[in-house]
Amino acid sequence: MTERPDRGLAFMLQYENIAWFEDGAVRILDRRCYPREVSFVTCTHYGEVAQAVTDMVTQSAGPYPAAAMGMALAAYECRDRSEAEQRAFLLAAKDCLSHARPTTAKRMERVCETMLEAAEDAWKRGEPVHEAIKRRAIEANNSRYERIGKIATYLVEKFPNNGTILTQCFAETIVGMMLKEARAKGKTLRIFCPETRPYFQGARLTATVCYEMGFDVTVITDNMPAFVMQREHVDVFTSAADAICMDGSVINKVGTFQIAIAAKHLGVPYYVTGAPDTVHPSAKDVTIEMRDPNFVLQAMGVKTARDGVKGYYPAFDVTPPELVTGVVTDRGVFSPFRLSEYGTRDAYEVVV
Predict the structure, then answer these.
(1) Beta bridge partners of 166
(2) CA 196, CA 305: separation in Å to the nearest integer?
């Protein structure tokens, strides 16, 4: 490969600015304060990488390369031990990193298992295990970005020129790749980003990527999508997904379901991007993560509710397949009711 596929994308979508292992540490861009502050969290133990994922230092697809680089860090930590001790150490790291957040645990397990395969190859060849895992992590990134580039080509075909697009939360790589593809096709787009409380990923992350890549972008509050779809003539609503179940159910940032309802009512097509997860036959097989309810009682550190008031914070919701126009994959656009036709594919390679 002559050029990495992250070249030409916004700052936060470049590998080194997501999660990067070097000199005995993993450096992770702190998305909790970006873009108002460009700060990195430095982890010197794989457990700190897992905690960074739990604490939302990185989110969307960020935890996947973070977990891969965390495995490289774990290999570095135990580099002077026997092969048997290293293997046990890496297995413990795999369990810790893959369960940093419950809803995506099965995808994270596959990421860590791939890094363990790289470790096994390194032991056979007698090379430093941490270097082999880092190399595999970069290869996985390359493969994922390339496949998401294919998704982007199918998605952008659904966008009219001078079209208006509504997003949800921060869809990570597909946002950058869809904009890169739109730019290559000469398509002018106007993008509306719901702010996505309580971490404001839409306002801080999606909007920043769109702006840096030269597109007209407007932030709206989370209670505005129906009005905006109606008044601003939105052509397409699109999101990525934390899981796409084989029955067509979409697990994504809480709020996706209600936007999909409004889109259906107003005749706006909803296209979700990603690969069907064969490990999730239906939404019943997905654990919906419940986060600290107190976090919804504040906004970026400023308390908004009076003492004694309770909060409620599901991180995700479930959008049923009848509200989904199509699932856009690297193999084309599929009906949510016919995902079995997609075939098997490593979910990590095509995740957001």
Answers:
(1) 192, 237
(2) 18
Cα(18)–Cα(201) distance, integer angstroms: 15
The pLDDT, as a whole number, for residue 347 is 41
- DSSP state at residue 104: T
Burial class of residue 178, CB neighbours in 10 A (0-12, 13-18, 19+): buried
Catalytic site includes residue 242: yes
Counted residue by residue, the chain has a size of 352
Q: Could you tell me the two tokens for 89?
A: 């150490």
Residue whose pair of structure tokens reads 């009005």 in the numeric block: 227
Could you give phi then psi for residue 270, rounded to 5 degrees?
Answer: -115, 115
pLDDT of residue 346: 47
d(CA 145, CA 239): 17
Which of 6, 242, 277, 330 is catalytic? The answer is: 242
DSSP 314: B
| Per-residue pLDDT at 248 | 98
Residues of the chain falling short of pLDDT 70? 1-2, 344-352
For residue 59, what are its two tokens? 């989110």
Q: What is the DSSP string of 18-60?
A: TEEEETTEEEEE-TTTTTTS--EEEESSHHHHHHHHHTTSS-T
Beta-bridge partner residues of 107? none
Dihedral of CA 255/256/257/262: which sign? Answer: positive
Q: Are strands 302-303 and 332-334 parallel, antiparallel or unpaired?
A: unpaired
Give yes or no for a contact between 107 and 347, defined as CB atoms under 8 angstroms apart: yes
The pLDDT of residue 350 is: 41
**Can you give the pLDDT at residue 3?**
83
Cis peptide bond upstream of 293, omega within 30? no
- C-alpha separations of 43 from 48, 285, 292 in Å: 5, 32, 23
pTM of the model: 0.91
Residue 351 has what pLDDT? 46
95 is written with which tokens?
A: 């369990």
* Region for 50 from its dihedrals, namely left if φ exceeds 0, alpha if ψ lies in -120 to 50, beta otherwise: alpha
> Cα–Cα–Cα angle for 178, 143, 240, nearest 5°?
40
